[in-house]
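User: I'm preparing a small set of examples for a lab meeting where we compare how different chains pack in three dimensions. I only have the primary sequence for this one, and I'd like the structure in token form so I can line it up with the others. Please keep the answer compact; I'll paste it straight into my notes.
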Amino acid sequence: MSFSTTVSHSCVSLLRTTACTGILLSALFSSESAMAQSGLLQQPVLTPQPREIHATQLVTVQSAVVTVPGGDAEDFFAAHDLEQTLTERGVVLSPAAGPTDLTVALLRKESPEATQILASEHLVFEAPMHDEGYVLVSQPGKVTIIGETSAGVFYGVQTLKQLVEYQNGVAQLWTATVRDWPAMKYRGIDDDLSRGPFPTLAFQKHQLEVFASRKVNVYSPYFEHTLQYSANPLAAPPGSSLTRAEAQELAAFARNLHIMIIPEQEAFGHLHHVLQYEKYSDLAETPHGHVIAPGQEGSQPLIKSWFTQIAEDFPSPFLHIGADETVELGTGRTKSDVDKRGLGPVYADFLTTIHTTLAPLHRRLLFWGDVAWNDPAAVDRLPKDMIAIPWIYWHEDSYDKNILPFKNAGMETWVAPGDANWSMTYPNDSGALDNISGFVESGQRLGSTGELTTVWNDDGEGLFNQDWFGVLFGAAAGWQPGKSDGAAYQASFGRTFYGDSSGRIDEAQRELMAAGDLIDASDAAFWLDPWSKEGHAKGAEMRAKIPAARLHAERAIELIETVRASDPKLREIAALQAMELGARRIDFIGMKFQLAEEMSSAYAKALALKDDKKHETETRDLLESISSMNGRCQDLRDAYSMLKNLYRESWLAENRPYWLDNVLVRYDLRIQLWQQRGEQMDSLNDEWQKTGTLPNADAIGIPSATTKP
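Assistant: Understood. Below is the structure token output for the 709-residue chain.
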């Protein structure tokens, strides 16, 4: 009996969360690669995994027609979205009157046809399915999607799109019965647009389309100073900020995709790029600092002006005021008040004042919940209709303590795990899977109504095309009930996101995760000078694990290059290039520290042999191993140069040019550094051949060799 026919309906529907996971995962990992090579998966690969699914077989589809019997305008949008995907998968769209292999009908629950199908299939449309749930019945020649709302119909379409596979030039459709609805009402992405990279409008639209395909319904771009305000135009940098026209266009685009855009405009902390201007100097807690000082006369009019425009341009029930990490509070203008009353009360009272100021806009306020760490008692002072978003970006054995202070105070909560991308050459996806699955499970269990997976670009180098793996796991975790399984998700990502049926991208992802788990893959390690004291220590710390890490990274590069060369139908090529860039940067980190040690060792040995005429050739070869046509200095120069060009290409695939030079200059400085060091070594080599003298390693900046020559 085949693998698929031994799996019960209940086991498939609970693959993510129950004991079935342990039984099935070993079979998935051992069999999926072989099945993928032949293009014959015996169960559909879906993300998010539907709550209930019973799949049977794949049938070939060459032509199709999509109908909307009820004539609803929003359902016509969903139909067009489906038609685009069918066309991409090689299905010919036929006119309604013509012959077809497949007819797809998008129905509302109350229609007579929907009622008949639900009854004949013995399917119940339960109350929790009302807002966004759907039923999908896929049979040979006919697919019916039933939703009570346009959102439900749209999400049924997103599942159907994943049930259509393209193999060896032929489109095939899974016959299946699906009943599905989300675990959490709000499922979103919080995207940092204030620390360097700022996406093009075209890329933001692409983000929204991908988010919608994974049933995300909230997009929260993070703004400190990069949203242009008509009444306050000073702080927004030209070329790296969203205009009002773009904001309105983006909001309208998102509405068709059933996504609410909820901009996060910081209204308390993280405002240095505003407060650096003299116009706002009276508002700052400390001169040109980061935090608005509560009680300053001009703060509330500015905040009201910002959010009035946001409310006009981004219709939604919410406003997000940020208010996290107000670390300067109490160190300047408010010191006496904080000394007298305490940090928590001053913080909570300012949020209450903002709540009062923005009350005429009739929106509920979202705010970051780190106040619960600093002063849990202050939570009781906050207005109870505000929504707290506790954030934790690392592993916790239990995340409950971050949610309970707000829950116990009677406040609604969303949870915010992290993509673990900040200041990394490639996101720490192992950490992200662990954090997201654990925190979202706690949120669901404790009644949190939403989740926001966060992306941060702390050092200005982040590329969103490297973040898809983590943020789309967040989307899946918010839709699926219980604790989502990161391994099952990882095993499906290459197929569902890139359209890779070979399994190579999934293998590359595992290799990249393994490499990042072995050595320091941070941007700091990438830029660190291995000849510095800190760099020498870092190299020694990682020495034993570098070879294995490099082999993992290089295997990832080979897999990515192979699949790109062999499959012209791959999707998301820019993201795949960004993934390869991450692998190459991690490989370079390891190589850099290895070559630095080799140079130290070579110079120490050359220094010991410099006066021995019998070893003159060996000494020259040692010096030339440090700098020559194939010297280590040139290797490092060349690598930085190659990575600079690859990084520029990936940046411009998603972002506006602004800020790019602030990153590329770091590449230029490293290229120059190793060029100069190579020239210095060439001069020393020439001098040694003339005079037989070499300076001590310390005199020219080379660290002492770790081992004796």
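A couple of notes for your slides: The longest strand covers residues 170-180. Confidence is low (pLDDT under 50) at residues 1-39.

User: Perfect, thanks.
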